[in-house]
Structures are given as structure tokens and as C-alpha cells.
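On clarity, I found the account of how folds are encoded harder to follow than it need be. For illustration, here is how one protein appears when written out as sequence plus C-alpha cells.
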Amino acid sequence: MFRVYFLGFLLLSLLTGCASVPSFKNDSLPVPLKKGGGYYLDDGPGDNPPGDIDAIPDAAPKVEPFHGRANQPYIALDAKYVPMTSFYPYKEQGVASWYGKRYHGKKTSIGEVYDMYGMTGAHTTLPIPCYVRVTNTENNKSVIVRINDRGPFKKNRVIDLSFAAAYKLRLSDKGSGPVEVELIDPRQFNALKKTSDLVNEKIKEKDVVAPQTKLADVPISDEPLYIQAGAFKNEKNADLLLKQLSDMGLENTPPFKKQFSEDLFHVVIGPFTSKDEANNIANLIKAKIKISIFVVTKEKN
């Protein structure tokens, strides 16, 4: 469905399709919600939202055929929009808004039923359906949503989110907020996920040897610190972890290295000049891949 930001907006008519939308148990939301008057055209959160919206899983990117009619050029509010019809790098910053109970249960631009508690969104020109990562640039919280609708058509708005997605980004109470939107190519995303799963599986095997010194236990020292992400008997497993770390695209990070000592292939990151710096990078890595990370006070020779 198209969101209506002011009276007089003429809805664009599109062919419909169908898709199932996951449902969640309706309990009371353990946070205060705004009541009437604070939302345009009486939109807003539902009366009986799920008990733990943060537990609603992100959309899982997969290859889907683009909807024919919904990706044709169209005009809304006297502006012409030409949707993308293929994947190419797209990243944009701007303001995100969200839509809720006024549109819950109604049809989206590709004919699917809108579920305000699903992880979906609307965009003016991205191909639909597609998947994007949305990051709140104020708190760095990030979600993945499936774009299945057109909009928003208000100036400076880059995406409309479902209530659940906005809640997980901590935007629902504000109504809108600054975000970065990045298009996900599901083929690349799933290839990286397979690599991640393989690395995690290998890390659980017996050929992984981890030092006993945990990050929090490293004493304050003038010596440079190095994160040890893994130690392997099999060099291929070390190479897999190096590739995954490289694919994460971490900024302002010391070099990733593979070093051999004590009959093991060590994957290390560093040097770091402070424990806080090492902690920050370690936390970023652990948030994306489930591995144990340790710190050593010197490189392996």
C-alpha cells in the first residue's frame, strides 16, 4: 500500500500477488506507546503488539523474481520514479519513517498483505521485492528488511519501515530518524553466510586451539596488543577465517595476519595501542560471527 502523507494523494493501482506473512503472539508491549493525536491520520502502533518485538527475526535474503508491474516507471505526487530492475551497489543516508495499524492487513504494491510486525519496508525506486540493511546512524542498531512496497513520497524520506523494524531500530517512539540504507545482493549475502557457517563449524572442531587469556583478563601493559581470532592445525581453516574477516569491511582496523608458530596457524589482528581499541574491534567481530576472541601482548613468531 502507499502511505498517505497529506490529503489529495492519488493511489497508484498495481496488480496483486500473494505471500504468507509470519504471525506472532499478541501480548502487551513492555514499553509505553503514544496514544491518539501523535500520529498522522490516526496511524500508530497496534493495540496488542507482540510481547518481544526485538525477538522477531530479521528478513532472510533470498533470490526472488522481481514483480513485473510494481517495477515499472510511475508517477506519484507529480514526481516520476524509475525503479531499478537489477542489482548494483546502492547505499544512501536519509530519514526513515514507519507505518502501522492504519495499513495493517491491507495490500502492498505487490499485492502482499502488510504485517506491521513483519520485517518489511517501502522504497520509491529499489526493485521489489528486494532486501536491504537499515542502520540507525545515531545508535548503530541494524536490521534487514524485505522491500515489498512503494513509498515514502515525502521529501527527504528514504525508506518507510514496518513498525517492528522501526521498533528494533529504536525509531518507533520518535516516528522518524536518520538511517543508512544499503541494498543486499542475496547471492553475495548467502555466499558469505555459507563461508561464515563453515568457519564457525571448523572453529568448533578439535583442531582449534585457543589461548586461555580472555580479553577482559589482559592486564594493562605498555606492550602492543593483538587480537587472536583463531588458531588452527589446518591452514585452510585459517584462510577461511581471514576471508570472512576481510569480507566484513571493518573500518580503521589494523591488518589481519596469518602466522605460523607452535605447529599452529594463528589468525591475528593488530597491533592495537590500547585495550579499549582492541575491545571495540573484538565486539564488532563477535557481533557478526560467533567466535571466541582473545588478546595476546605480542605477535606469534
